[in-house]
Recover the amino acids of this structure.
């Protein structure tokens, strides 16, 4: 299958930091379909060879095991082309169309790796140029809007040019093998399903913790904050995969219909419940891995009086028969104690304990990163001479080790899926808009609240109010158990 993959924003960070290295891995593993061309478009004048050198130089920033040798790069570089484009000029799109049509590839993937404010302009121009035929797919990456109205506005323009099945909205978490494994775990095994409900499960905790701060992205992050950056997309996508009903097929729309139902079943926030069930925080100076790190307000390009949140913890419920009354706790933040993404399913305690000191409930820990694995925490008899002494033991699976040779990075998987036209791991516009609809009352309540975010020291697990929130239900976060 021949394809043309076009990167708008071809000299930007996303392209050289993530997309080109991912494509190179696919190329190295022989996964890139033969007969492909990769075209980068950007504003400045360069030849194909100059662009190839530009990309080659940037590969030094890539993990050494993933870096090409000179010989490998030379073969990969044959696929790379460059074209100057002013994104506001209709004739430049007409020229691009000619370049594409001169060869007539089976599939054309147009990846908008530009600043999001350019998405509507680019889509409209693509439509005018007729670059939206059935062979064409468009890939968009978050942030897709900063609230419901702006997301709807982008979607309206995209839909006026492309059909929903041509639109590939990336949430890079869905490309992670550990996240795909959630579906496999739930719907490839009969074991969990009978227990996957309110009768057996006490609460579910989703933690997406980062040890890094905002780095060089202070200006972007300060306009965004943790709720928009991580909760509206990544955390809610994980929640839908944990809470969804089994889809009737593995088709994109069957899966996305079920995910949408979960988003629609989330308990809506009111100004009062935001005060009670949502905690926002902002990091102060602290220590991580023995190193002192500055506070958020001292970061480059962050205003000294910023009230942007770098931490969010919240409690919600999925209001349906399966989950009624089961708290779902979500938590994400920068400069937390460690980089750590996990889902903890806490089961209920045994109804009538007969062993002394055995009140500990089972839990299933799904580790997403840095390790990708599963731990099932059980109680077992120690077999000691002092009677029935039970002790916690855990059954550990390490998927990275088990499937090491098969695993591919998130962008590699998502790019290959976009080329192959598989939509399963991409977000549909109604899911994305529903997620905005749900987080908006939080944004409004915060805007009206003069208190601002609560401070927390870098290297901790966020403001104490986060522990207090779960303690109200008699729970603790996993690291406190
Ligand atoms: C991005 C956010 O979507 O996800 C970043 O914009 C965040 O702020 C990143 O650091 C986290 O992704 P990962 O794959 O490193 O967990």
């Amino acid at each position: 299958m021949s394809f043309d993959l076009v990167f708008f924003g071809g000299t930007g960070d996303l392209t050289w930091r993530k997309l080109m290295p991912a494509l190179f891995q696919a190329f190295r593993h022989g996964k890139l379909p033969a007969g492909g061309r990769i075209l980068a478009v950007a504003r400045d004048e360069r030849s194909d060879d100059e662009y190839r050198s530009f990309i080659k130089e940037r590969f030094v920033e890539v993990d050494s095991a993933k870096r090409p040798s000179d010989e490998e790069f030379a073969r990969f570089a044959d696929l790379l082309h460059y074209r100057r484009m002013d994104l506001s000029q209709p004739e430049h799109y007409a020229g691009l169309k000619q370049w594409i049509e001169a060869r007539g590839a089976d599939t054309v993937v147009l990846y908008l790796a530009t600043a999001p404010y350019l998405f509507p302009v680019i889509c409209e121009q693509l439509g005018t140029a007729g670059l939206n035929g059935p062979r064409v797919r468009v890939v968009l990456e978050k942030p897709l809007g900063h609230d419901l109205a702006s997301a709807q506005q982008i979607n309206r323009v995209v839909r006026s040019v492309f059909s929903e099945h041509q639109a590939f909205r990336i949430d890079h978490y869905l490309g992670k093998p550990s996240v795909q494994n959630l579906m496999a775990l739930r719907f490839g095994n009969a074991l969990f399903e009978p227990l996957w409900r309110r009768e057996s499960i006490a609460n579910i905790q989703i933690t997406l913790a980062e040890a890094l701060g905002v780095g060089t992205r202070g200006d972007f992050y300060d306009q965004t904050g943790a709720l928009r950056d991580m909760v509206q997309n990544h955390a809610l996508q994980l929640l839908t995969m944990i809470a969804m009903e089994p889809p009737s097929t593995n088709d994109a729309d069957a899966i996305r219909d079920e995910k949408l139902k979960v988003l629609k079943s989330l308990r809506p926030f009111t100004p009062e419940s935001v005060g009670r069930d949502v905690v926002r925080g902002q990091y102060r100076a602290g220590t991580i891995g023995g190193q002192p790190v500055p506070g958020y307000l001292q970061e480059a390009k962050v205003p000294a009086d910023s009230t942007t949140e770098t931490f969010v913890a919240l409690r919600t419920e999925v209001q349906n028969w399966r989950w009624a009354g089961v708290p779902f706790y979500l938590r994400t933040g920068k400069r937390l104690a460690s980089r750590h993404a996990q889902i903890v399913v806490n089961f209920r305690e045994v109804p009538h304990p007969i062993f002394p000191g055995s009140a500990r409930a089972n839990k299933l820990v799904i580790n997403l990163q840095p390790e990708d694995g599963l731990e099932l925490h059980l109680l077992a008899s120690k077999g000691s001479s002092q009677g029935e002494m039970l002790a916690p033991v855990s059954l550990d699976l390490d998927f990275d080790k088990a499937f090491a040779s098969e695993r591919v990075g998130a962008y590699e998987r998502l790019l290959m899926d976009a080329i192959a036209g598989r939509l399963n791991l991409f977000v549909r516009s109604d899911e994305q808009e529903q997620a905005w609809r749900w987080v908006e009352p939080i944004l409004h309540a915060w805007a009206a609240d003069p208190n601002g975010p609560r401070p927390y020291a870098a290297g901790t697990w966020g403001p104490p109010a986060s522990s207090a929130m779960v303690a109200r239900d008699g729970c603790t976060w996993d690291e406190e158990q």
The mean pLDDT is 95.
